[in-house]
Amino acid sequence: MFSLSAKIQDVFNEPACEKNHGKDAKARKKGCSKPLTPGAAAGGCAFDGAKIVLQPITDIAHLIHAPLACEGNSWDNRGAASSGPTLWRTSFTTDLSELDMVMGQSERKLFKAIREIKEAYAPPAIFVYSTCVTALIGDDIEAVCKRAAEKFGLPVVPINAPGFVGSKNLGNKLAGEALLDHVIGTVEPDDAGPYDINILGEFNLSGEFWLVKPLLDRLGIRVRACIPGDARYLDVASAHRARAAMMVCSTALINLARKMEERWDIPFFEGSFYGITDTSEALRQIADLLVRKGADPEILDRTEALIAEEEAIAWKKLEAYRPRLEGKRVLLNTGGVKSWSVVHALMEIGIEIIGTSVKKSTVEDKERIKQILKDENHMFESMAPRELYAMLSQHKADIMLSGGRTQFIALKAKIPWLDINQERHHPYAGYDGMVELVRQIDLAIHNPIWCQVREPAPWDCLPAVEEEMLGEEGTRATVDAFKEFAGTTAGDFGEC
Asked: Which residues are in the Nitrogenase/oxidoreductase component domain (predicted)?
């Protein structure tokens, strides 16, 4: 069993990462670790990253071994959805107090919490998360979980990713390591077939995966496990019997995909379900991998027939939006897979991309963006809020697509904004998702509220009106009456 520090070094020395290939041995051993600076946890700590990857497994109990605030601050911070079990929506924490820690009662309290969850909910498994506090006081959650599993007869999985060890992305990878060490491969399915695949790094935000799964069902392709979106424990435990895998977000779970290929010979590729072209290409690559692993080659023809049918329907729907959106300028302030997949999707209908953030993107992501945009000047590592506001207030973009933390910059600049990060309420994956994304952009840009908020305020117009009224031999009483009237009907005046 690796210690936490050894596990972190192993995660950072990632052979599947192209960036690592160019480093010397010393730099590769050091990895990509950067010490957290004050305030950096606002972007997500390692504990937050681990919980993001594992909480969408919907039928297990997620127990946070920490004081109350750790669970309270991280609960329900993503829009993942479940088609069945709701246990993942229940918040479990050991709620440690100072007395528990000083008196050495925290491990006993953890064992008691596991027993109470087992008796009250009978989940197929319990995941126990270490946090900064419990790691610093030296709680051995692995020993407690092992003893609880023996005592209660169910898997109790330790997730050793305390927040202080690194960033959210490191927590993503440590969560993948926990699945490899304790979950995947522990259950042998009795229905494995030649058309079984895994989808890795898909979180089913706002039910996005439900727009893609029907396409795979029509091809006779079964998703053995979608990790983690709308997953079940037994599906994840038997994921090692899939024939192929698609990696949606390599930044988060590339280590999981690579090690599953090494251990169980499950080939994988990185693709995207955002945009018509990328969705079609992903379906083609899935079919091709399955054929290479022994599936009937006729699935290739069925895939092409499905693609032709779905693309025709989607393009017909999108043509209605092209005259309204062609030439519109979009600023994309996100990262990871969306930094290139959404870019490609929007350019397909004639929208101009004036910039895309690559702060959380891999080297492969950046190369894709260069090929799509043909101009590195449209890529920016990060943009300070002041610079972002200056760009938007000068009307260099017609809309900004980003996460919730930068929405107020766009609103202050009186520019339409659309959420495409994890808090969003609309699914954008697949063919239907692309149509929905374009529809939401159209609604945002052409919302009549923007014409109103950009007009000068009525009280800014009063000096000019007052001068005009007095110049026409108006009386001071008339002007005062007009001011009083304008103050009560501010919304009725247009431009000065």
From this structure: 45-443
CA 84, CA 25: separation in Å to the nearest integer? 47
Q: Which domains does the chain have, with CATH numbers?
A: 34-182 (3.40.50.1980), 196-312 (3.40.50.12380), 322-448 (3.40.50.12380), 458-492 (no CATH)
Q: How far is CA 238 from CA 225, 226, 452, in A?
A: 8, 11, 56
Q: What's the pLDDT score for residue 32?
A: 54
Render pLDDT for 133-146 as a digit per residue (tens, 0 to 9).
Answer: 999 999 999 999 99
Per residue in 435-455, pLDDT tens?
Answer: 999 999 999 999 998 888 888
How far apart (Å, rounded) are the C-alpha atoms in residues 306 and 327? 30
Angle between helices 4-12 and 168-182 (to 10 degrees): 110
What are the E-state strand segments in 164-216?
A: 196-202
User: To 5 degrees, how large is the angle CA 184–CA 190–CA 194?
Assistant: 85
Contact 332, 269 (CB under 8 A): no
Average pLDDT over residues 409-421: 88
* pLDDT tens-digit readout, 191-201: 999 999 999 99
What's the order of all strands across the beta sheet hosting 399-402? 379-380, 352-357, 329-333, 399-402, 417-419
Asked whether 419 and 433 are in contact (CB, 8 A), the reply is no
Residue that wins the pLDDT comparison between 405 and 392: 392
Cβ–Cβ under 8 Å, residues 49 and 175 = yes
Higher pLDDT, 480 or 412: 412
DSSP 117-145: HHHHH--S-EEEE--HHHHHTT--HHHHH
Walk across the sheet containing 268-270 and list its strands. 222-228, 196-202, 244-247, 268-270
